[in-house]
Amino acid sequence: MADVTIYTTQICPYCYRAKQLLKAKGVDYTEIDVSMDAARKREMVEKAGGRRTVPQVFINGTHVGGCDDLYALDHQGGLDRLLAAS
To answer: With contact defined as beta carbons under 8 Å apart, do 57 and 18 qualify?
Structure first.
């Protein structure tokens, strides 16, 4: 199974939607809440190429992007392929 990490905050509706999609696909993921953790937020921004918004999703070390990016990838059929690769 794929190694999925999602950086989130507690009150983000886009984070909720991204997690919903991953759950619907039966994907286990590691959630990192950056709400009150400046060090984790810096880590996320660095790994995401400067992107500061949440969620930021990584699959097998590849930066997928945010919620809209995740849904677009799914719509194009690329999400299932990425999740199948381990």
So the answer is: yes
How many CB atoms sit inside 10 A of residue 7's CB?
Answer: 26
Instruction: Report the topology of domain 4-85.
Output: Glutaredoxin (3.40.30)
**pTM of the model as a whole:** 0.95
Sign of the CA dihedral running 75, 79, 59, 29 = positive
Spatial CB neighbours of 25, under 8 Å, sequence gap ≥ 6: 79, 80, 83
By the 10 Å C-beta count (0-12 exposed, 13-18 middle, 19+ buried), 58 is classed as buried
Instruction: Tell me the per-residue pLDDT of 19-39, one tens digit each, with 9 for 90 and over.
Output: 999 999 999 999 999 999 999
